[in-house]
Amino acid sequence: TNKGIAASTDGNGRLAFLDPYVGGQIAVAEACRNISCTGCEPIALTNCLNFGNPEKPEVYFQLESCVKGMADASRAFSSPVISGNVSLYNETQGSPIFPTPVVGAVGLTEDVGRHVDISFKGDGDAVLLLGASEVTDNVKYFSGSEYLEVFHDLVAGQPSIELDKEVAVQALCRNLIKHNLVKSAHDCSEGGLAIALAESCIKGGIGFIGEFELGNRWDAQLFGEQQSRI
Length: 230
Fold this sequence. Notes:
- By secondary structure, the chain is of the alpha+beta class.
- It has helices spanning about 15-20, 20-35, 55-75, 145-150, 165-180, 190-205, 220-225; strands at about 5-10, 40-50, 85, 90, 95, 100-110.
- The protein is globular, with a radius of gyration of 18 Å.
């Protein structure tokens, strides 16, 4: 057989803290996006749900909302949750941890020879951005971002994702890989576009030169964490 599998885990407590329903959706979407970036199609999920004391109403709300978000995303990807576990009562001096759903995904390809990794491959190759028509400087994509926490010590904003768009972008990525039209693929997630480019450069041992217009909020363009981008 030429079949191959890929596995990935993902989770972000900041996003689930800001909006547990959307955070649950994004945890599933990012785990599946990592799978799709190899050329495999996501087929099943597992999870570990890390929360505080569910006897407290606010923590119970976080847990309930997060599970609902994960369930909706699971249906969008036609990838059932086949197992999982919980870690509850995680607190320090009465303060709960950020609600942190960690999602594991497994994917399948019919031809393991047609798979890619995140590394840039050769001089002169074009680098494409799937899922966005421009490198936006909209500051709303700082919501729950690494940049906001590291440089401003803030966890703030309203995270968002469009599941229909996410599913379509991932399907496009898999189709490009299937037809040998791309040599590598990497998801834009924590750290934004700049970090995704840097990781592909480091992994491939090759640099990147690109041109796009920087606006007044160049920090948002480079480090904003807009979903559904590859």
